[in-house]
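User:
Note these tokens:
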Amino acid sequence: MNKINIFIYLIMSISIILAACGNKVTSDIKNYKAEMQDVQSEEKKLVHELDKLGLDKADQLLGSEVTEEKKKKLKLIEASIHNKIKPQLKVYEQKVKAINPETSEVKDVHNIYKRNLIKKKQFILDLENYMQLFNQSIQSNEKILQYTQVFEKNKNLSEQYANQISAKGKDAKEYELLADIINDNSEQLKNKVEYLSTDATVKQKQQYIENKLLPFLKSNVDKLNQTQISSKHVLGMRKATIEIYYSLINYYRERKLAMNIETKLQNMPIQDILKNTKYIKSIDDEYYEALRKLEEKNK
């Protein structure tokens, strides 16, 4: 009889413990959901700012043709991410991290939400990084175009001075001396830039620009400056040619930078990033399903 009483007592004790545990989980769920209302409010603010970016039409902005209107919109997107979305992300992230459920069951569910937060954050950082690089690429290409225009301008100016030089006397001798230096430099430059069209890696090409091409162009400027010239038109021709070399120095410096930007952009496929725009909005479906099942289990 005593054994039976002990057995009944054990069963009742276990039932009471299980009921107490169940009540604790139920209470924790209730408290957790109440705390998460503030978190979800901050998340809605974040989603609202993301929606304002108009990422569903972003592929129209990221095409090869770049207009002034497109540039303006792209800069606005970059500024909005930096000034509005990232600060709101920080507030949202702090709210999520402040939630600390008491029971392991609710903690497991909340961990799903925290893992999703990491993915949301990475999406925003990837998007910001891409927009920064894309805008840098536009600026870099514009600089390259400007240096090309400066090159053409000074080339025409050099030719104008050359046409005004007398075919006889001192002017002609100084012109021949300068022309020989310019032609020799031009031929060497033509051979050297061919390397940039080879299958060499981007890093190798960048090193080549820095260690070979730029020093060569600078040495051309030194050669021209050391040439003994007194003729007015030949002096004008030399000055215009020096400006040509300076524009080439700036051009290849910018080419080196542009190579780096383009490589980074190629390693960040924008279509994959934009696809995540829709995915991010439904990423918490698993979390809400896990929370629902936990609630059902502890009714």
